[in-house]
Amino acid sequence: MKITLWGVRGSIPTSTPETKMYGGNTSCVQIESDDTLLILDAGTGIQHIHFNDNLSHRRIDILLTHLHNDHIQGLGFFKPLFNQDAEVHIWGPASQTQTLRARLGRYFAPPFSPIYFREFSCKLILHEISNESFDIGSINVMANFILHPGPTFGFRVMAEGKVFAYIPDHEPALGSKGLIENPDWLSGSQIVKNADLLLHDAQFTAEEYAAKQGWGHCSMEDALKYASILNVQHLLLAHHDPDRTDSELDRLYHHLKESQTSDMPFAMAVEGSEIIL
Ligand SMILES: [Zn+2]
Ligand SMILES: [Zn+2]
What we know:
Bound molecules: zinc ion
Structural class: alpha/beta
CATH architecture: 4-Layer Sandwich
Shape: globular
CATH class: Alpha Beta
CATH topology: Metallo-beta-lactamase, Chain A
Largest sheet: 7 strands, mixed
Order of helices and strands: EEEEHEHEEEEEHEHHEHEE
Radius of gyration: 18 Å
Number of helices: 6
Strand content: 25-35%
């Protein structure tokens, strides 16, 4: 399975020279296995995914963890949606009161967008998902609701005997005094346990998190502890705060490394990097 990180910034894209090493595009990850291609989230990073104009017989699947703006902002600029030959499947959550179609339709309409959802000319198929497993080509995906404001999924992506867990927005410590140590009661544990690689929310430092509980995000320290409790083999810290410069991320990484109590390998996610699992 080949994993390409096209966007690892959180909340709002950045384009300053001070953030260009780790990258400024918001959440988007491409997964390839055999002939199957998945895109996880449609943040601004999706603009880097290019296809030939000839998209006949080409199926593209976009899995949305949730509909916060930083995870769908790139969708209206994704060219295959305007290609009559393309078949695009969008998977994501409905809400208690609205279908996935209605929820996306609010965004793709004035005053938020000059184009309407109905103007996508590809063959478009929407899939409302819940806590479930499904196959897309040669890839198996497990979706589970996790702790974040509004209906939000984590995804466990399995192919070629390997497991990639993706939870870019997550507040696993919400509602308790720190993380629960028992994996059975941890949000997202079914998605994450024993994963070969986990990409996880690490927007805040522990100090920042103390003032931002309930905002839906995780501290770097909690992300490390969370991955360690769930026996993750390798962790990528992501959803970098938009105010965080490259040098600050480097400094925080070395600080985390010095104080780490487990030997689990981890790194700060870098836009544009490719990982073969
Ligand atoms: Zn986000
Ligand atoms: Zn979010």
